[in-house]
Amino acid sequence: MNNDYEKQTIEYENGEVQEEDVEQGNEINTEEAPQPSAQKKKKRKKKHYFLKLLILIAFCVALYFFLHSSLFNVKSIKVSGSTHFTAEQIQKTAGLKTGENLFDFSAGDCEDRLEENPYIQEAQVSRKLPSSIEIHVKERQEAAVIQMDQEYVVIDEGGFVLQIAEKAPRFTLLTDITITDAKEGEVVSVEEKATFQQMLRLVKAMQEADLFFKRISISGNTVSAYATDKLWCTGTASNLLTGMKEGNLKTVLYDLYKKKITKGIITIGDDQYYAFSKKIK
Q1: R_g of the chain computed on alpha carbons
Q2: Which residues form the POTRA domain (predicted)?
Q3: Which residue among 43, 150, 168, 248 is least crowded, i.e. fewest CB within 10 A of its CB?
Q4: What is the rounded distance in angstroms from the CA atom of residue 128 to the CA atom of residue 101?
Q5: E strand spans, 30-102
Q6: Domain 72-139 falls in which CATH fold?
Q7: Listing from the earlier edge strand, what are the strands of the sheet with 120-128?
């Protein structure tokens, strides 16, 4: 009996491929044919992942050594915004110096160290490739001083304590204020809170009007702002604030200065009415 055969290609599990004569009419069950094992596929995937990981590690190592090469050593440090401190003092406080690597410090840590100083309100440290650092600071400015026992508490226009001095600095002295607590780097605590806030508004208006009062005191509704020990302005806080804002008070004081009048009382009434008396108590 003659049977007809045909050639068919069969791939085995081990990857070997052979052609065999298969009798016609007999179908091969492809589901029973050897298939590549799942275990071998997993091994190939693991090899690919491992190779990718090695490449990534090699890249990171190369990048690290490149960034820490002498190309990125700090050659210059620029400081801006500071009036109270020298550039060297700012650099030292920040913990920065030339010669160190540009990526060997934390900008945030440098900013925190700078802002620990009461005079520095805000600090910004930035890297400038390939070898420079820029430091910009925003400082608080002295505005007034309050006596506390035998010491003097220097504050900014918001009542923030900048320093506690043994000698009276040449800033506007706020009298009739009782300090309950004062620490550098914190807002001063006082008993007369409403009066103190009025004084701070007067100090701010004084600075904006380019005026200087040696001393400010408040008794009831009456404010006394001393240009000198023997020449002062008096009136309500509202009238003084308006006079400074509109420039009227500055004009009156300048007119007295030109006339070489160094003592007397300037009374500021409603509607910005000004009266001057040379008689002082």
Answers
A1: 41
A2: 72-140
A3: 150
A4: 12
A5: 76-80
A6: Ubiquitin-like (UB roll) (3.10.20)
A7: 76-80, 132-139, 120-128
- Does the structure show a pLDDT above 60 at 74? yes
* pTM exceeding the 0.85 threshold for the entire prediction: no
- Token duo for residue 87: 């550039």
Tell me: domain 144-277, CATH 3.30.70, correct?
no
> Is the bond leading into 169 cis (omega within 30 degrees of zero)?
no
Determine the residue type at 96: L
What value does the mean pLDDT take over residues 111-115?
Answer: 97
Query: Rounded to 10 degrees, what is the CA torsion of 96, 102, 104, 105?
Result: 50
pLDDT of amino acid 71: 80
At position 158, the amino acid (one-letter code) is G
In this structure, what token pair is assigned to residue 135? 């430091």
Residue 25, pLDDT > 60, answer no
Determine the residue type at 55: I
In the chain, where are the structural domains located?
A: 72-139, 144-277
Residue 3, pLDDT score = 53
